């Protein structure tokens, strides 16, 4: 007997008990149970060989062809037929198992009820539209939908984890930046400590020198006391004359030495603190109260100014004549040393504006280049030349609400717009000062108006088609404060409460 006679004529698999027993179709032909199920469901219920109609509605309703099954078993026992192993559920992708209610293969899924169903389940319990509300799909489509449903939470979680990763990476970057900042502070502090140690050694050396001179002064005093005693002890005219002569020589010598020592002492300048850029950058993070001092001569004398750290920039406030000396514990820097940290080109200054008894905010202005007008403006903000914008009023506002609106101030002499003479020579028009009239542009007076060349104006609104030939700066922030100031009455109540220079750290 041929091996093919013991197998199904449709799938060519060998007959076997359990999963693939042969079923008699009623026309004399037999087909395995699995193929019968497919024929009933999709094959029009006809015999694949003679095309006779199959009356049964399920494969299990057809009788098993036991003689043919025994023959297949006998051939397998003699080794002529190798039995085909029954596929495990994981190896069979044609169905989801057997329906316990109808003993048919589960080849569909009701997505509404979330169960696998056979053909009879669909007819009996899972009616689709319009008869019912169930949604029944084929096995492969069901697998695709189920995969999508199962994988969506995974995708969502991966997306959430990616966002979490980005947040953590951002935090790590922020911490790294903080670390670098503190490392920079530590470097500055080490430089400060080294410099302080150098100053301590220098002061100790100076102190030793002074103590040596104290010893010398004590020697001079001892010599004079001895001369005094010799005069008092003289018993004769000759002894008195000799003692007086010796005392006169000692007194003359001592007076000359004392005069030289006083001059030397007055010339000695004892520094109150450090004055190098690196040291300032280190100390500025340690003290909220710092000062600068400008040594002067004559009536101006010594002048003081504040230092503060704001928005990661060092603010050098205008020098004042009326500021008392700070306590000994306050870090004090040389004004010239701090002033040297201001960028040479395109330096920035600030004006703190007040009206109605309250500070309204800060206007920062970046100067354009190193022109004479820009240098003069910086000098008046720092007060380094004596005059400053400190406590000056805004005195005029033109074209308010229209094109080319402007507010003017800076008359450090008369505070009404009639003064404000130039501090520097060589202030001209046009050239570097020629700019399009635009909001925030800082301008000055015409070069012919020497009596008010230090005054300034700030353009507040666009003025199409117009240029100015006296521009020397631009407002970086605070333009809205000046715009609001134009609506205050009287305008002269709007005052520059304080001003100064900005030093980037």
Automatic annotation (TrEMBL):
Alphabetical keyword list: Metal-binding, Zinc, Zinc-finger
GO molecular function, one term: zinc ion binding
InterPro entries: Cyclophilin-like_dom_sf, TRIM/RBCC, Znf_C3HC4_RING-type, Znf_RING, Znf_RING/FYVE/PHD, Znf_RING_CS
Keyword DNA repair found: no
Transmembrane segments: none
Superkingdom field: Eukaryota
Xref: SMART domains: RING (SM00184)
Domain annotation RING-type: ranges: 8-51
Family per similarity comment: Belongs to the TRIM/RBCC family.
Protein name from the UniProt record: RING-type domain-containing protein
Species this protein is from: Petrolisthes manimaculis
Lineage of origin: Eukaryota, Metazoa, Ecdysozoa, Arthropoda, Crustacea
């Amino acid at each position: 007997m041929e091996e093919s006679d013991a197998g199904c004529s449709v799938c060519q698999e060998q007959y076997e008990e359990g999963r693939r027993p042969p079923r008699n179709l009623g026309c004399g032909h037999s087909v395995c149970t699995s193929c019968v199920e497919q024929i009933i469901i999709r094959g029009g219920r006809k015999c694949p060989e003679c095309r006779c109609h199959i009356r049964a509605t399920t494969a299990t309703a057809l009788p098993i062809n036991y003689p043919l099954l025994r023959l297949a078993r006998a051939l397998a026992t003699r080794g002529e037929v190798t039995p085909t192993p029954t596929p495990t559920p994981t190896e069979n992708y044609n169905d989801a198992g057997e329906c316990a209610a109808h003993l048919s293969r589960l080849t569909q899924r009701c997505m509404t009820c979330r169960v696998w169903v056979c053909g009879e389940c669909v007819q009996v319990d899972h009616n689709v539209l319009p008869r019912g509300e169930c949604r029944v799909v084929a096995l492969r489509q069901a697998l695709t939908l189920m995969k999508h449903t199962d994988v969506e939470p995974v995708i969502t979680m991966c997306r959430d984890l990616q966002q979490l990763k980005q947040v953590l990476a951002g935090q790590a970057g922020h911490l790294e930046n903080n670390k670098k900042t503190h490392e920079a502070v530590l470097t500055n502090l080490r430089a400060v400590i080294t410099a302080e140690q150098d100053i301590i050694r220098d002061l100790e050396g100076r102190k030793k020198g002074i103590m040596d001179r104290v010893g010398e002064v004590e020697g001079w005093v001892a010599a004079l006391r001895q001369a005094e005693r010799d005069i008092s002890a003289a018993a004769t005219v000759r002894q008195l004359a000799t003692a007086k002569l010796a005392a006169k020589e000692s007194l003359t010598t001592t007076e000359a030495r004392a005069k030289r020592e006083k001059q030397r002492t007055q010339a000695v300048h004892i520094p109150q603190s450090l004055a190098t850029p690196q040291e300032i950058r280190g100390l500025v993070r340690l003290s909220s109260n710092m000062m600068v001092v400008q040594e002067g001569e004559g009536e101006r004398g010594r002048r003081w100014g504040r230092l503060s750290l704001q928005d990661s920039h060092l603010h050098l406030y205008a020098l004042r004549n009326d500021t008392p000396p700070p306590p000994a514990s306050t870090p004090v820097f040389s004004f010239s040393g701090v002033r040297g940290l201001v960028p040479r080109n395109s330096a920035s200054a600030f004006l703190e504006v007040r009206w109605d008894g309250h500070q309204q905010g800060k206007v920062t202005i970046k100067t354009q280049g190193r022109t004479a007008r820009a240098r003069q403006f910086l000098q008046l903000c720092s007060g380094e030349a004596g005059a400053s914008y400190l406590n000056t009023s805004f005195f005029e506002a033109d074209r308010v609400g229209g094109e080319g609106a402007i507010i003017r101030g800076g008359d450090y002499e008369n505070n009404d717009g009639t003064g404000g003479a130039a501090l520097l020579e060589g202030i001209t028009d046009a050239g570097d000062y020629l700019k399009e009239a635009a909001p925030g542009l800082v301008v000055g007076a015409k070069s012919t108006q020497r009596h008010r060349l230090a005054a300034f104006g700030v353009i507040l609104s666009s003025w199409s088609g117009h240029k100015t030939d006296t521009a020397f700066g631009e407002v970086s922030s605070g333009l809205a404060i000046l715009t609001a100031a134009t609506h205050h009455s009287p305008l002269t109540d709007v005052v520059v409460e304080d001003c100064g220079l900005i030093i980037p750290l």
